[in-house]
Inverse folding.
């Protein structure tokens, strides 16, 4: 069983649609990370959050610590948002700064 | 510009050969990591290092070796003992603070290794 589960695995949307990607985790965490991986392979960090909600442009990330669940929302989606979105959990302190990674959600936004 | 570089972007090797993947960072980060990515799987940790001349095995260290002689550099050698070496390899780095689990990791562009 994976410590971090993401859904859906694949997602296709029309340009302009509101998109939600979900992440559930089973470990105690100090922070939850959302990462974006473009087709070239490089990964960039979108959000790191330990409570509540963060917003950056059209991207919104929320986390519910009690329910061990996080969501990534994309408003007014655009073809350039097409990428793989990865959820990663920072487990409890003293574990070597390791992350637990979800398998990713592959998003395709069609013009 | 500060960042992490990995070279080469694509690497082809014959079965049975050792190959070394480069990872360099100029972010002055103490910690560095090597991950392997396979289709349909999350990133898996191979090795990590939190200080020069010290490193720890991750979840899938068998068939790999690393060194950390300099803070900026953390090369990964894929040895002939690695049974299925074809994969995408990502290097990352982060700062180390007392609250280690809160630290963001910065990723390099990756190296795609194909063993023929």
């Amino acid at each position: 069983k994976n410590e971090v589960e993401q859904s859906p695995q694949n997602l296709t949307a029309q340009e302009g649609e509101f998109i939600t990607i979900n992440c559930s985790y089973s470990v105690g965490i100090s922070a939850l990370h959302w990462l974006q991986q473009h087709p070239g392979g490089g990964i960039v960090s979108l959000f790191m959050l330990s409570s509540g909600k963060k917003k950056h442009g059209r991207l919104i990330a929320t986390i519910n610590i009690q329910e061990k669940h996080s969501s990534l929302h994309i408003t007014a989606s655009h073809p350039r948002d097409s990428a793989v979105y990865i959820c990663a959990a920072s487990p409890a302190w003293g574990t070597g700064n390791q992350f637990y990674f979800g398998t990713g959600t592959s998003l395709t936004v069609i013009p | 510009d500060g960042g992490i570089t990995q070279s080469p972007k694509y690497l082809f090797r014959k079965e049975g050969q050792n190959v070394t993947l480069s990872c360099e960072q100029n972010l002055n980060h103490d910690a560095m990591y090597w991950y392997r990515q396979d289709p349909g799987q999350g990133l898996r940790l191979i090795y990590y290092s939190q200080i020069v001349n010290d490193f720890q095995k991750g979840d899938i260290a068998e068939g790999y070796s690393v060194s950390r002689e300099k803070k900026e550099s953390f090369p990964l050698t894929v040895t002939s003992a690695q049974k299925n070496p074809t994969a995408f390899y990502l290097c990352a780095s982060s700062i180390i603070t007392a609250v280690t689990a809160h630290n963001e990791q910065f990723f390099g562009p990756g190296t795609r290794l194909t063993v023929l």
